[in-house]
Amino acid sequence: MDLFLTLVSGVAWTVVYVEAIRVGLRDRTYAMPVAALALNFAWEATYAVGEFRSGVSAQGVVNVVWALADVAIIWTYLRFGRAELPGFVTRPLFAAWSALVFGSGFAVQWLFLAHFGTHDATRYAAFLQNLLMSGLFIALYADRRGPRGQSLVIAVAKWLGTLAPTLLFGVIEDSPFILGLGVLCSVFDLTYIGLLLRERRVAAAPVLGPAAERAL
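and the corresponding structure tokens:
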């Protein structure tokens, strides 16, 4: 069961990254909230290095693959992200802001590592930033007033990719803290999925002409 849940999480999150790259390029925007992207990239880079210090491991390889995928998503943010901001945000200001956000992502990961140690820091940081990401996806939908730069595939894969380790660490390994965070993630993720499904139904609904409306 442990291996199955780990594989589900790994595959689901890989789908999230690949789809985020595809959607970002398609819509000429970035498909992951930037604060969550910064924390994700810092987490993967930090713990990939940690894994390889003791030799090559499956998790280390996965972390490297995810970090490289994040680099592609970061490129979409750097390429298209300034257009999402007010006009007074100049290129230098955008560059400074981006450096602050991504630098802060690494600082947060290293603070978790220093305070909790590797075993707990990897899990606590992952679930807390996951909860942040869940909320920020909804905020992204609201800010863009629709699903531009978003995808139901990302939403569902993100939910499953978080649900699997919630069951593994929260239920099987009996961690109430992680279980609680995982449940909150699911609440936000399912809300986001509901918003995207509603948007899809609205887009698919037939547009009635004036005559049909009068007939109703």
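(Above: one complete record from the training split.) The mean pLDDT is 90.
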